[in-house]
Amino acid sequence: MNRSIHFIFDLLPPEQESIPEKDERIAATMLLQSYFINVQGCLDNIAWVWVHETDQRGPDGNELKRGMVLLADEADRGVLVTTEWLSARPYKKVEISEAGDR
Question: How many domains does the chain have?
Fold first, then answer.
């Protein structure tokens, strides 16, 4: 991840005043996208470590399913999901076709 940022600044140095070439813009965009996908993966891993280390369970007492663990959703940026938070919110099942439309 650190190398991605260095590559981006090599391609588009902050002191550059001219408009970068199309290939440089495309490469920087690809690097930024890969960086943010990796950030999301790291946050997902942190959430799962917390769930397992603290033995978090769903409202029914069962282990949390894959789609129930996240650090935040669109409505709650920056909120660490807890069982209390989960039980206070209505459950919405996300179908694969619905998730693919986002």
Answer: 1
> 98: number of CA atoms within 13 Å, CB side?
4
pLDDT at 96: 44
Rounded CA Rg of the chain = 19
Would you call 39 exposed, middle or buried from its count of C-beta atoms within 10 A (0-12, 13-18, 19+)? Answer: exposed
pLDDT, tens digit (0-9, with 9 covering 90-100), for 65-82: 777 776 655 555 555 555
Q: Report the alpha-carbon distance of residue 60 to residue 46 in Å, rounded.
A: 23
Q: Give the domain extent around 75.
A: 2-100
How far apart (Å, rounded) are the C-alpha atoms in residues 70 and 98?
Answer: 18
Task: Give residue for tokens 């391609």.
Answer: 11
User: Residue 79 and residue 81: Cα distance in Å, rounded?
Assistant: 6
50 touches 80 (CB < 8 A)? yes
Q: Supply the pTM of this predicted model.
A: 0.58
